[in-house]
């Protein structure tokens, strides 16, 4: 995350603490302003641009919680981190329930403070990285950040890209990100779900038709490909495209021409085609359900979206984002999750991925009688965990899946501490490192997820 341009307001009645934290944050590239108390901080907020406030809890006059309540009332988009030399579980829970983003105990670990600042800024949309501003993808997970870097590079070329991922992982959002990063960013982006339109209408929707081409064709329709000329067409669930239409799509990709239904004339187009599927197209090719030549035309390059269960650090970011969206949509006060509720969200396996998470947040927010959504409400909303189907899994695949999930949960429970996790697993540290490397797990991601849930 870029820190230049980010303005931090430090609030503490101890000049020594202000000086020490100012030096640390200035060294990291932040713009730092200081206030010696709550009243002084509110004056600065009224005259200066502030992205985040870091305040001591116990100060003469207005304390940190009172300052936060003032900020929440008048500057609700500014996140607040509270520091205290007198930390207790009771105070931490109370502060978090009121909406304080993070509660840290002095002496503050600089890495922990930086992590909290980064996550608060991401959540509040103050992160100035191109990915956050351009793609609208909310993430702090290493695997997703790496995927975004790949997407940014692939977007610069004009090749067709196949996006793979489970249902609900955000394939259309990634496709729009590719468009946003590309030279076609200011041109049309048109998405269509191939499984949502009847087979006999799909050709007309894609390539258009002329008046009188079929019963009900009372006027010409240019179709989605012609409408997207110069831009990008996104074909979602490409694996469900009928066989006869696959042949016509292949011709369009080869010749960059379309022929509307009922017409004898070709129309030249200039479009980039992105496609997506949750199916195994290689198996569909073997079964004769998908054309191999079309597959290679669509899959010049591919991007694989991870499931939400493999992005544990993003769950709390996404959940809080959905709450903010609900508050903006309804014009009300944004509700908060209790720490235990966030723990429950991050412990769940999310078979429906981000779409399911969004639904759960919508339901719990609608049913929550108070501003705080508790663990019991989350657990009541989550479907009962069902045994995963194993009919199509080999014993090796099943063992690998279990091992990865076990390691991920263990790292989360130990806050990413590899030594502690290895001890719990009954392995030496070297062997445990090999295991997490084998499954491409990042202890730092689990560590940040655990901190964010507190």
Automatic annotation (TrEMBL):
Pfam families: AAA_lid_14, Response_reg, Sigma54_activat
Name assigned to this protein: Sigma 54-interacting transcriptional regulator
UniProt keyword terms in alphabetical order: ATP-binding, DNA-binding, Nucleotide-binding, Phosphoprotein
Modification 4-aspartylphosphate occurs at: 56
Species lineage: Bacteria, Pseudomonadati, Pseudomonadota, Gammaproteobacteria, Cellvibrionales
Response regulatory domain ranges (all copies): 7-121
Keyword ATP-binding: yes
Annotated Sigma-54 factor interaction domain residues: 137-366
């Amino acid at each position: 995350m870029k820190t230049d341009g980010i303005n931090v307001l430090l609030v503490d009645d101890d000049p020594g603490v202000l000086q020490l934290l100012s030096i640390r944050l200035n060294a990291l590239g932040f713009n730092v302003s200081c206030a010696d108390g709550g009243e002084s901080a509110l004056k600065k907020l009224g005259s200066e641009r502030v992205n985040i406030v870091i305040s001591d809890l116990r100060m003469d006059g207005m304390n940190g919680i009172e300052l936060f309540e003032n900020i929440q009332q008048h500057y609700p988009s500014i996140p607040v981190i509270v520091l205290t030399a007198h930390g207790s579980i009771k105070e931490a829970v109370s502060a978090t329930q009121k909406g304080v983003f993070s509660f840290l105990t002095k002496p503050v670990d600089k890495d922990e403070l930086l992590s909290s600042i980064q996550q608060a800024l991401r959540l509040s949309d103050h992160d100035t990285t191109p990915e956050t501003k351009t793609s609208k993808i909310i993430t702090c997970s290493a695997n997703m950040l790496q995927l975004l870097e790949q997407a940014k590079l692939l977007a610069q070329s004009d090749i067709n890209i196949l996006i793979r991922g489970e249902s609900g992982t955000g394939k259309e959002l990634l496709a729009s990100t590719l468009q946003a990063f590309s030279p076609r960013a200011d041109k049309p982006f048109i998405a269509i779900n191939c499984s949502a339109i009847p087979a006999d209408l799909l050709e007309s929707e894609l390539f258009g038709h002329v008046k009188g081409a079929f019963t009900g064709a009372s006027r010409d329709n240019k179709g989605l490909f012609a409408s997207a000329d110069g831009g990008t067409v996104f074909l979602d669930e490409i694996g469900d495209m009928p066989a006869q239409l696959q042949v016509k799509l292949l011709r369009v990709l080869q010749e960059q021409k379309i022929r509307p239904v009922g017409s004898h004339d070709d129309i030249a187009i200039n479009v980039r085609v992105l496609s997506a599927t949750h199916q195994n197209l290689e198996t569909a090719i073997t079964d004769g359900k998908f054309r191999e030549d079309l597959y290679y035309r669509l899959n010049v390059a591919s991007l694989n979206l991870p499931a939400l269960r493999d992005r544990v650090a993003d769950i709390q970011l996404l959940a809080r984002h959905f709450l903010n969206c609900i508050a903006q949509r309804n014009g009300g006060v944004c509700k908060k999750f209790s720490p235990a509720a966030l723990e429950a969200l991050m412990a769940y396996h999310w078979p429906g991925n981000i779409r399911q998470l969004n639904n759960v947040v919508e339901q719990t927010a609608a049913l929550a009688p108070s501003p705080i959504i508790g663990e019991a409400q989350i657990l009541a909303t989550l479907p009962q965990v069902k045994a995963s189907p194993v009919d199509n899994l080999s014993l090796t695949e099943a063992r690998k899946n279990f091992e990865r999930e076990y390691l991920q949960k263990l790292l989360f429970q130990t806050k990413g501490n590899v030594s502690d996790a290895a001890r719990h697993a009954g392995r030496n540290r070297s062997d445990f490192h090999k295991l997490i490397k084998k499954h491409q797990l990042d202890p730092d991601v689990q560590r940040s997820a655990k901190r964010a849930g507190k």
